[in-house]
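Q: Could you fold this chain for me?
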Amino acid sequence: MGKDIAGLREFALYSYRINHLKNKEKVLFYYALKGRDGKSGIIKLYNIEQIAKSVLLASKNKESEVDEFLSYWKCKFKKKEVFIKK
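A: Sure. Below is the predicted structure, expressed as structure tokens.
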């Protein structure tokens, strides 16, 4: 996961939008995100947690992979640095 600071772990919190995608593209996006089985997409690959429908929590060391994924899909996103107690 991320680096530890005084009992806290560093993460990147993403909120993103996919309203620019056509319905077919949204399906493909979700397949890439969660996998066709709902369990094997980038969420599992990079140990990302989906907090809400359009909110992801990723380890700080996987931040560039998530940035690249969302950029590939041309998603507008906001990213915040957060620290979570172990």
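A (continued): The chain is about 30% helix and 35% strand.
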